[in-house]
Inverse folding.
């Protein structure tokens, strides 16, 4: 069509036979995923012993793997429930590793056995959104202590977020704050010399089991089934006319998590929000994954500087992430159940809230359609 920029692309063998393009839209589309990923990765690197270079290495690898494998701009994100609990200190690193491996194994097995449709019937959307709200509330609570370290600098970060929100991309404010924090960190420590991340088996310690691991795994599986598998499958069909089943997505999420976690990576998933973000920013093929994967791999060489980002700015980043998760969660077909699960999780534990929420959800489903509790 006249006036359209030239589209540069190559055709690679993949399951869809889709063409991978490298256009301006693919480059800008890559940003749609980084808005979701980088705030959580940087917060984990700054607030836990986890290595950001190793984390980015595996995000880069699997962006490229799934971009080529599916031919689509699939998102590769942290498993948000587990990441949020680790940032808030509910899960230590050994527990995060254990929960990640359990989640990855369950997703791989569930995908191979074709169990996702059955699981979706058990885990309703309002219950999933309740878990998302719980993670948002836990992150917001953790942010309060970080903001108090330097209220003035936190105010500067908040002002930056407000200005970015005026452009219509409020979540991008987290990237701007990270940019400010990175600049301050470089000013204090200097530009880091490029250094490839070291590879080792369980470099951050061995996994450890606990009651919190069980709670975190339940919470993550609930969100992975609904948001990362089923919702992403529907988006692939709606946005790209691609037939990618929820079971396939569960299998790939499980596989990459089981590979990455023992080698210093995070538990990872395909988030529907990241896929929608990539599309909104212009991505139409797996070319966006090639771009973002290359950027992550390059970032892994100099990412050590993030440990010097001021704590107060990390607090602002967590608030932005919490608000985004919370707003998504509140858009629920059963808001009382969603809010009840979220608040109960904040006051007790995510595991307790999930189990009680599931019981209440099943009981409500048995009521007649005209019952007042079914129409609230």
């Amino acid at each position: 069509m006249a006036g359209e920029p030239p589209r540069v692309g190559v055709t690679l063998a993949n399951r869809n036979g889709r063409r991978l393009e490298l256009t301006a839209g693919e480059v800008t589309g890559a940003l749609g995923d980084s808005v979701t990923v980088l705030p959580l990765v940087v917060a984990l690197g700054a607030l836990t012993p986890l290595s950001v270079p190793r984390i980015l290495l595996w995000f880069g690898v699997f962006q490229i793997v799934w971009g080529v494998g599916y031919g689509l701009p699939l998102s590769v994100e942290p498993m948000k429930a587990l990441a949020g609990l680790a940032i808030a200190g509910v899960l230590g690193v050994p527990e995060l590793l254990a929960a990640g491996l359990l989640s990855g194994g369950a997703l791989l097995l569930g995908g191979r056995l074709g169990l996702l449709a059955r699981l979706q019937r058990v885990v309703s959307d309002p219950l999933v959104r309740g878990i998302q709200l719980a993670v948002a509330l836990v992150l917001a609570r953790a942010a309060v202590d970080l903001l108090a370290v330097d209220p003035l600098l936190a105010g500067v970060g908040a002002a930056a977020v407000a200005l970015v929100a005026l452009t219509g991309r409020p979540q991008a404010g987290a990237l701007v704050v990270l940019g400010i924090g990175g600049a301050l960190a470089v000013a204090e420590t200097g530009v880091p010399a490029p250094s490839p991340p070291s590879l080792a088996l369980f470099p951050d310690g061995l996994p450890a089991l606990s009651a919190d691991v069980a709670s975190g795994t339940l919470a993550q599986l609930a969100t992975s089934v609904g948001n990362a598998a089923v919702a992403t499958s529907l988006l692939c069909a709606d946005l790209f006319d691609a037939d990618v089943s929820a079971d396939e997505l569960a299998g790939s999420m499980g596989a990459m998590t089981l590979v990455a976690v023992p080698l210093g990576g995070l538990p990872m998933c395909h988030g529907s929000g990241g896929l929608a973000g990539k599309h909104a920013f212009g991505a139409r093929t797996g070319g966006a994954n090639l771009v973002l994967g290359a950027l992550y791999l390059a970032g892994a060489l100099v990412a050590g500087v993030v440990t010097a980002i001021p704590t107060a700015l990390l607090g602002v980043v967590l608030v932005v992430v919490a608000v985004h998760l919370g707003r998504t969660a509140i858009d629920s077909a059963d808001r009382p159940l969603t809010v009840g699960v979220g608040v109960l999780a904040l006051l007790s534990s995510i595991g307790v809230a999930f189990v009680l929420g599931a019981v209440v959800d099943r009981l409500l489903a048995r009521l007649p359609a005209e019952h007042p509790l079914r129409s609230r």
